Amino acid sequence: MALMLIKRHLWLYVQETHFFDSSFQLMQALEFNNRVVLFFDRAIYFTCLGYQEEELKCLGKQKEGFMSRVFK
Known about the structure:
Layout: H1 2-16, H2 23-59, H3 66-70
Helix pairs in contact: 1-2
């Protein structure tokens, strides 16, 4: 939930500061928003994936998962 609130706060900040005065700047702001959304979506995905792997490892159902191989 905190990651979604940070994402929303960033977009509201961009809107409130009137970052865009022209259509080109508006397109840049939308592209920035899309990249922020993608970043936070990936952060949430990999957080859930790591949590799930640790939970399965504690139960003895999984030996080594994707996150374990990446962060050795």
